[in-house]
Amino acid sequence: MYRAFDSYDCTALVVQSTLTYRLPGSPVVEKKGCFRKLDNPNLFDGFIVSDFEGQHLYGFYEGAFDEETAEQELPVVISKSAYCDIANEFIHYLQDHTIDKAILSRVKQVDFGSNQPMIFFSKLVEKYPHAFCYFFESPSLGTWVGATPETLVKIEEGRGVTMSLAGTKPAGDGSAWGAKELHEQQLVTDFIRGQLLEMCAEVRESDRGELIAGPVKHLVHHFTFDIAAFKQWELIRKLHPTPAVSGYPRDKALKCIAELEAHDRKFYAGIIGLTSAKTTSLFVNLRSAELLNNQLYLYLGGGLTQQSDPESEWNETENKAKTLLDLID
Q1: Scanning 99, 159, 261, 306, which has its CA 20 to 30 A from the CA of 327?
Q2: How large is the average pLDDT for residues 96-125?
Q3: Does residue 75 lie within any of the structural domains?
Q4: Hey, is 20 helix, strand or coil?
Q5: Using alpha carbons only, how large is the chain's radius of gyration in Å?
Q6: What proportions of the chain, in percent to the nearest 5, are helix, strand and coil?
Q7: Degrees (nearest 5) of the Cα angle 298, 304, 309?
Q8: CB atoms within 10 A of CB 25
Q9: Is position 9 within any domain?
Q10: Domain that holds residue 162
Q11: Res 195 pLDDT > 90
Q12: What is the structure's pLDDT at 215?
């Protein structure tokens, strides 16, 4: 599944991973070390990344060597017509199985050319000060870069925040939000509220607002809550993947995705960020891309409902791609 060689110099075997990230409002951090699979994230302190459903979680161990290498398969890239065909299958599946929403994603391939990954990362940091930006190169996990606007959870000394982020349109569009986007975001809000009320104390919810993320904007509710430290990862498991990246009802939507999506999401829409017993800042790995053989593979998704139009959904993914594409020379 994953590659063993540096995507820019395929003659050089990487024996140590490199990691660079920037939390919103914080300086850039650079580390060298190794990624290793985690059995118990409650006992880990540091940077983590997971696959889409959070079943495989990897921690970064600074200063460690001898990371195992793994060959990586090329992502599956489909045409617009193929995407629209799958979108129609999704819509029929939603109708037949009484599913309100499911997320259909695709992979877009572009030439990275002579761009240098660290310069590209620096551009992301400058352009998106409120996003979690990262770049890592690993012999076992591959080479990934991203700038995600979506907080999964931030917890400090038992006080937490999260958000319900869904519904998308161009950032400059001043028209009223449509019924489809409002319904889509409300599903996510109701799901997150329910999970928090089940596990947490002092749950508070903001009014609905907008969050601008580069070339697009989303509808958002913010939540605050109190939670005991030993319940932290139980809550994270209950929240992720939220309907914003899976669908609703979640189990049915995940089955739809597994049956109809053409590609492996890998780390797209998985968990990424920092965790410890006292302070945790985790994000949903959106606006992310994989680097391989001087090609950039962008992972792009959108929420489909029973009334969705495939052409409009395609256009939404194209707009989301601009978050990264606008910074390529």
Answers
A1: 261
A2: 96
A3: yes
A4: strand
A5: 19
A6: 30, 35, 35
A7: 100
A8: 7
A9: no
A10: 17-325
A11: yes
A12: 92
Sign of the Cα torsion 216, 98, 299, 274 reads positive
Give the tokens for residue 295.
């090609």
Two structure tokens written together for 189:
């809000």
pLDDT of residue 204: 98
Determine the 3-state secondary structure of 5 from DSSP.
strand
H or E, element range at 12: none
Measure the CA–CA gap between 277 and 42, rounded to whole angstroms. Answer: 7
Domain annotation covers residue 182: yes
Q: Does 277 score more than 60 pLDDT?
A: yes
Q: Where are the beta strands (DSSP E) in the chain?
A: 17-22, 29-37, 46-50, 57-62, 101-111, 132-138, 142-148, 151-156, 159-170, 201-205, 209-213, 216-226, 247-248, 271-275, 279-284, 288-292, 295-304
Residue 9 has pLDDT above 60, yes or no: no
Q: How many domains, in total, are found in the chain? A: 1
Token pair, residue 91, equals: 């819509």
- Which CATH number covers residue 143? 3.60.120.10
**Per-residue pLDDT tens over the stretch 243-260:** 999 999 999 999 999 999
Asked if the model's pLDDT at residue 8 lies above 60, the reply is no
Q: What does the alpha-carbon distance between residue 203 and residue 112 come to, in Å, rounded to a whole number?
A: 44
**How much is the pLDDT for 12?**
43
Token pair belonging to 106? 């695709």
Mean pLDDT over 138-150 rounds to 96
> Exposed/middle/buried for 69, CB within 10 Å: 0-12, 13-18, 19+?
middle
Q: Does residue 30 come out as left (phi exceeding 0), alpha (psi in the -120 to 50 range) or beta?
A: beta
